[in-house]
Design goal:
Layout (H helix, E strand, L loop, with lengths): L3 E6 L3 H12 L4 E7 L2 H11 L3 E5 L7 H11 L5 E5 L3 H12 L4 E4 L7 H19 L8 H10 L21 E6 L3 H8 L11 E5 L5 H11 L4 E4 L10 E4 L5 E7 L2 E7 L11 H12 L3 E5 L8 H9 L3 E5 L9 H7 L5 E3 L1 H13 L17
Parallel strand pairs: 1-2, 1-3, 3-4, 4-5, 6-7, 6-12, 7-9, 8-9, 12-13, 13-14
Antiparallel strand pairs: 10-11
Helix pairs in contact: 1-5, 2-3, 6-11, 9-10
Length: 375
């Protein structure tokens, strides 16, 4: 099998060497070239025909944003992974880059103590994304991996008898899990929901600290719902969308008649914190058969076991389809395990949420079924 061809674009000689040394050690990847700014990068893309481009944001002559805009005009489907700093400025620039068409991002290692630790960070974060975006970890192997995952004990209590879904179809919460491609997916989905959407939404998006806060703010500006980063004891109520903060697991817990958020620094699951499985398990415990799980685009299998627990509790799960996903890992695992009630393209999921939100509630007039009012 041909190796994945990567073009590394960064104005720092140190970073270029760090990245190329890490990539050179992987037999499935080759660095076909490097560039110190966007102008050189655009020329080299035409010459070298890479499979993936890693792109720095801050560069002289032509920075990452300008480069990305021009690159997308000529190469609309070429995977581009942004290299950003773990700072508020870096996070804001990364979210802007994703909205302009970047495929994914990794954060540059900083203050890690040694070159070896920096290399390991890049190895752990960048290489899996390169392979996923180029289909090397594709759905062909999902069935085997699902069977393997299901053979392992769950982190929570043993699975019991499945509970039937409510006869009236009513759901009281929507829990969403998403990773690679998630910021754009959420920015598409959430603004389509009406201001009087009657069900609270809780979300895990795999992102580091600072990024999740800015993501919530960015989505809130274009939405009719109150989108916020999760906070301890935040009330899970209609009109609210809570996004788990980076580096914290987020759960829901019932306190008498109120459901609140709980944040913790428990061990990562599926190498993730926040983890979708953690949120979904808590939703299953708290809401039983009156929840809806939604698994959107993402790499890996986070959300698979949590979806099992939702289904065992009598709730349903909807997943994004392969064609509209940036990476069909997370939704693919759930679909292949037979846990998905429906598999839908992203542009149909908002209408599906609106439809399900209406079930069990007072009847609506026909013209209120699409992005309208819900009681």
């Amino acid at each position: 099998m041909a190796r994945i061809r990567v073009l590394v674009v960064d104005d720092s000689v140190v970073v270029r060497k760090l990245v190329t040394d890490v990539l050179a050690a992987d037999p499935e990847i080759e660095t076909v070239g490097t560039a110190a700014n966007g102008r050189i990068a655009l020329a080299k893309i035409l010459q070298l025909n890479p499979d993936v481009v890693t792109l720095d944001i801050e560069m002289p002559i032509m920075d990452g944003m300008e480069t990305l805009r021009e690159l997308r005009k000529l190469h609309p489907k070429l995977p581009v992974i942004m290299f950003s700093t773990l700072s508020e400025r870096g996070a804001a620039a990364t979210l802007e880059a994703l909205s302009l068409g970047a495929t994914d991002y990794v954060t540059k290692p900083s203050n890690v103590g040694s070159v070896a630790i920096g290399q390991q960070r890049i190895r752990d974060e960048l290489i899996p994304k390169i392979k996923a975006l180029c289909g090397r970890k594709n759905i062909a192997s999902v069935s085997t991996l699902v069977a393997s995952a299901q053979s392992k004990p769950l982190a929570a209590a043993p699975r019991g008898t499945k509970v039937a879904p409510p006869t009236d179809g009513r759901i009281d919460v929507i829990a969403i899990g998403v990773s690679t491609g998630g910021p754009n997916a959420l920015a598409t989905l959430i603004p389509l929901l009406p201001a009087d959407f009657p069900i609270p939404i809780v979300i895990v998006q795999h992102m580091p600290p600072v990024f999740t806060k800015l993501l919530a703010e960015r989505i809130r500006k274009s939405s009719r719902l109150n989108v916020q980063e999760g906070v301890t004891s935040g009330v899970v109520e209609r009109g609210h969308v809570w996004i788990a903060p980076g580096n914290y697991h987020m759960q829901v817990r019932r306190e008498r008649t109120v459901v609140r958020l709980a944040l913790d620094l428990g061990a990562p699951e599926n190498s993730c914190r926040p983890a979708v499985d953690v949120l979904f398990r808590s939703v299953a415990r708290t809401f039983g058969n009156r929840a809806l799980g939604v698994v959107l685009t993402g790499m890996g299998q986070d959300g698979l076991r949590g979806s099992e627990e939702l289904v065992d509790a009598g709730s349903r799960v909807v997943v994004q389809d392969q064609e509209s996903s940036v990476v069909w890992g997370m939704p693919g695992f759930v679909a292949q395990a037979g846990l998905a009630d429906r598999v839908l393209p992203l542009h149909q999921i908002a209408d599906e949420l609106i439809r399900r939100a209406r079930e069990g509630r007072r009847a609506q007039t026909p013209d209120m079924t699409r992005a309208g009012s819900i009681a």
